[in-house]
């Protein structure tokens, strides 16, 4: 089941604390360090388009890819409101297809953690490598084992607002490295009634070693890994890691 089918209407409401502006600035700056300041950039797991639209406003020709139709509907509304040039595709990142290559591909907000196993991770890396320009960059973040095991663990989070509310229960399985989210949403509708919806999400924690091995198995070059917040060295208490990989295998045509 695609994630966030019921949650799409509430997603932006409860994600208003996510530092999308900072992530956009970070992404733009890091891509620029590789000479990528324009051209086609694709985002895997784009959700409601928060990063996609910001990067489109910075001059990139954006392609947003997500497998949840309801999330993309919200993204399209933003595209219309912004008058952006973003293209949104309803595809699973494990088998996405593009008509050509991109200067860069990105994935923010732990979308890559939804890949349940190193084989799936390696397959996505293989596809990314295929759809990147020669020497193109893949920039993505992931929640760390520390975050799942120590911060989310078996904790329950809840929030109540006038437009809706949610209850978010977590369970982390150390043997499988999977974090299971049981989520219950209440969306306020006309007449003051609330509609209830439930979803179960599963994310997998990966060590940096697992990510590097999967990338190398897919033919990509490992470039760097850092703490996503500080851009410093990853520590045992880093909550999110930011990773950069480079395309390998295509020849540059200088004609």
Task: Summarize the entry for a quick read.
With 255 residues, the protein is an alpha/beta fold. The protein has helices at residues 8-14, 20-32, 50-57, 69-82, 118-131, 145-152, 208-217; strands at 39-44, 60-66, 87-90, 102-107, 132-143, 156-160, 164-173, 178-188, 194-204, 221-227, 240-246. It folds into 2 domains: 8-144 and 205-246, Rossmann fold (3-Layer(aba) Sandwich), CATH 3.40.50.150; 147-204, S-adenosyl-L-methionine-dependent methyltransferases (N-terminal domain of TfIIb, Single Sheet), CATH 2.20.25.110.
CATH superfamily of the largest domain: Vaccinia Virus protein VP39
**Total domain modules:** 2
**Quaternary organization:** single chain
CATH architecture of the largest domain: 3-Layer(aba) Sandwich
Unreliable spans are: none
Helix and strand succession?
A: HHEHEHEEHEHEEEEHEE
Question: How much β-strand is present in the residues?
Answer: 25-35%
Rg over alpha carbons: 18 Å
Average pLDDT value? 91
CATH class of the largest domain: Alpha Beta
> Major beta sheet, specifics?
7 strands, mixed
CATH topology of the largest domain: Rossmann fold
Distance separating the two termini: 46 Å
Q: For the largest beta sheet, what order do the strands appear in spatially? A: 3-2-1-4-5-11-10
Q: What would the principal axes of the Cα set say about the shape?
A: globular
Helix content: 25-40%
Compute the number of strand runs: 11
Q: Structural class, please? A: alpha/beta
Put simply, the count of helices is 7
């Amino acid at each position: 089941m695609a994630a966030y089918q019921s949650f799409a209407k509430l997603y932006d409401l409860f994600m208003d604390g996510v530092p999308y502006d900072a992530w956009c600035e970070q992404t733009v700056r890091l891509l620029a360090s590789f000479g990528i300041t324009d051209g086609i950039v694709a985002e895997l797991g784009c959700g409601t388009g928060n990063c996609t639209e910001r990067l489109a406003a910075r001059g990139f020709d954006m392609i947003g890819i997500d497998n949840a139709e309801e999330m993309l509907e919200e993204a399209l509304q933003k595209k219309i409101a912004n008058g952006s040039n973003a293209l949104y595709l309803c595809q699973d990142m494990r088998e996405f297809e593009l008509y050509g290559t991109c200067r860069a591909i990105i994935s923010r907000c732990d979308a890559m953690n939804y890949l349940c196993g190193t084989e799936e991770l390696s397959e996505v890396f293989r596809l990314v490598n295929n759809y990147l320009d020669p020497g193109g960059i893949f920039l993505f973040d992931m929640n760390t084992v520390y975050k799942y095991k120590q911060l989310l663990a078996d904790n329950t989070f809840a929030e109540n607002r006038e437009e809706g509310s949610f209850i978010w229960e977590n369970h982390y399985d150390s043997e499988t490295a999977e974090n299971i989210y049981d989520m219950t949403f209440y969306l306020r509708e006309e007449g003051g009634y609330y509609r209830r919806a439930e979803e179960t999400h599963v994310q997998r924690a990966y060590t940096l070693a697992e990510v590097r091995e999967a990338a190398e198995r897919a033919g990509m070059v490992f470039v760097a890994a850092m703490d996503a917040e500080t851009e410093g060295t990853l520590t045992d208490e880093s909550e999110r890691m930011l990773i950069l990989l480079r395309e390998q295998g295509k020849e540059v045509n200088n004609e």
